[in-house]
Amino acid sequence: MGSRAMYPGTFDPFTNGHNDLVRRACRIFDRVVVAIAANPGKTPLFTLEQRVAFAKEVLADVSNVEVMGYTGLTVEFARKQGLNVIVRGLRVVSDFEFEFQLATMSRHLSSEVETVFLTPTEQFNFISSTLIREIASLQGDVREFVHPVVAAALQARFQK
Predict the structure, then answer these.
(1) 31, 88, 106, 129: which is the annotated catalytic residue?
(2) How confident is the model at residue 2 (pLDDT cuts 50, 70, 90)?
(3) pTM of the predicted protein model
(4) In which order are the strands placed within the sheet that holds 114-118?
């Protein structure tokens, strides 16, 4: 069967940091599913369908990655898809507490699914979707931080 992992998140929008983490995870695992959460508790800038399309475009050249949208519990999605590892990114120390809580709760909900943490490449450790949205909303240039298709969508979204 091989090692199968998922990289879950809202990815609103999908950044170069996300791209980097997925590509690195693909060198470790035989199959990686980028699992994009509908996350009804948040009000995303882009629809689930748009976020899935962006990630598919960015990762089109990676043979062992699949992009899927999902609703519900992450560990349930992992179990249904036969994925035994959840990959999470840790950018800064402040991420650790929240991610540790998530990993512990996931392990409590399903002992079959393990969580592993990857740290970003140094050039991406300050990038977050929240910052990208804010910069774009203020007409800032985000092309250095996101794929061109995402940059164009952000620019179109915030045109004045």
Answers:
(1) 129
(2) low
(3) 0.89
(4) 65-70, 31-37, 4-9, 85-89, 114-118
Q: How far apart are CA 33 and CA 62, in angstroms?
A: 11
- Predicted confidence (pLDDT) per residue in 125-148, tens digit: 889 999 999 999 999 999 999 999
Q: Using one digit for the tens of pLDDT, what is the confidence trace for 62-82?
A: 999 999 999 998 999 999 999
CA 136 to chain centre: 19
By CB neighbour count within 10 A (0-12 exposed, 13-18 middle, 19+ buried), where does 62 fall?
A: middle
Q: In 3-state terms, what secondary structure has residue 157?
A: helix
Give the Cα-Cα-Cα angle 54, 55, 60 (nearest 5 degrees).
105
Of the candidates 4, 79, 91, 107, the residue annotated as catalytic is: 91
